[in-house]
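Appendix B.2, paired examples.
Example (i):
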Amino acid sequence: MGLRLSFHAQLMQMHGITMQGAMGMSALSALALAVMTRGASRRLAAGAGLLVAASFLITRLGNVPIDGRIKQWAATSAPADHAEILTQWEAFNYARTSAAFAAFALLILLSLRRSHSAQGLNASPWRVS
């Protein structure tokens, strides 16, 4: 158990800034794409943006408070119900990972749709439609 807590605490130190930056860029990119497109493409981009926002909120409201508790455990000792708390952390982790994966899948779908329509029109895939 001690090794897991130490690893988790170290991971949180390196992970915080990187993940927040990646989530911020993902949300801004999806928002920009939603503004630049129309119709179904706009809805796909907006959906991806909402999923990124959901992933961020799950992280901020679910995982981060538990991470703070885990940091304390690494310095002292884990409480009697630590297994239940870690199970809750993992459930939040699965939810945020699923939301992020679904956002990524929507953006891939959007990219494939745009690429396919651009080939049919013999136009640049970077043209805004």
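Example (ii):
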Amino acid sequence: MKVSENLIFPLLEESSGRDREIKQFGIKKVEEVIYHHLFLNKDHRQLDKELLGKIDGTTKGRISANILYYYGIKGKNNKNRAIYRGIFHGISLLDAVEYLENLIVQEPSRRDIVNIIKILNHLKNSLDREEGDKDYSYLEEIDEYLKEVLKDNVEKTINIVDQVKQPNFYENILDKKSGYRRNPKIATESILVADFKCEVSEDHNTFISKKYNKPYMEAHHIVPMKFQYKFPNTSLDTHANIVAICPNCHRLIHHATELEYERILDLLLNKRITRLSNCGIDIDINTLLLMYKE
């Protein structure tokens, strides 16, 4: 969903100047608090519990409130609701930043939003880098699985049942990391079922992999895994959502112009729409394209 012409981003208040929580939790966690408040409609209590680890509720949202107040994100409407909570709900990071940057151009006096623009831009760049690192490691794991499966040159029977399955959430308390796992075995099976042919077009030629002596293919989640939070009751890491594509098509999806990647995504979604629905993943092309703009 694009930013509505009717959206009004209220004037941010002067910073509280209290940076104790900023120093305590670090910029990455601060970015998450701001994003979850502005984009995911989370209130202060939810932020303290879900992001800052105050699960007993005794802080009553004060910690995240102090973080937000430092950036001037405070104030309530006539319904006693935080005025910035969910203001960008359903809007991509890219579109929100573009909206705020245009706001400064139109109203040069709105210097109050400069720091928010910096925060959101830094968050987007960090997410892009993290996703790139995860993708590289994931593709390496898939290659190793394919090498192992094909080493004895024995045909493997794969039985795939499209059904709803629970997301594979993990949490590492020591490293303070959490997320949703991607199983390289599932992606490996998707490539095997596709018989090492690109699902955009079987005519797409690629090189022979030195690891498994077959045409090199990569696995791609049609609905990106970073949006697993939008599907809390079903996993996106499922055969129906994973296609085998040649490396050129994979790069095209991530780096080409909108006109080019929209055509490919529309084709892939149409091929898998019924199977995705059977897995509890109901999505239309417009919603999917919005995800790729983030």
